Hints:
This protein is an alpha/beta fold and 85 residues long. Helix content is 21%, strand content 39%. It has one helix at 14-31, and strands at residues 2-9, 35-37, 43-45, 47-54, 64-66, 75-78, 81-84. A five-stranded mixed sheet has the order 4-1-5-6-7, with helices on one face. Strand 5 (64-66) and strand 6 (75-78) form a beta hairpin. The longest helix has 18 residues, at 14-31. Residues 80-85 have low confidence and may be disordered.
Amino acid sequence: MNVTVQAVYAPTDETAAEAAQEFKKNAESYWNAQQLMGPDGEEITFNVSVIPVAADQVDNSQDKMMIVNGSGVARVNLHGAARPQ
Length: 85
């Protein structure tokens, strides 16, 4: 299963940029190590790629998630359609 997502952060927020890099490292490390069996015995492996990107560099054709500095509600945007988590 291939998954690519942009981790978007404010270009002037160094803390959010660092958080995006840390999220990339942790998410890829966790998901790319998973090997699951599907309901019909098929092997499911993951190829997760997180791309940290400043908000002014976003590719709107790609899925994206926003990295913010502070507390709040987690949201995942898929091609611009917000889906609260």
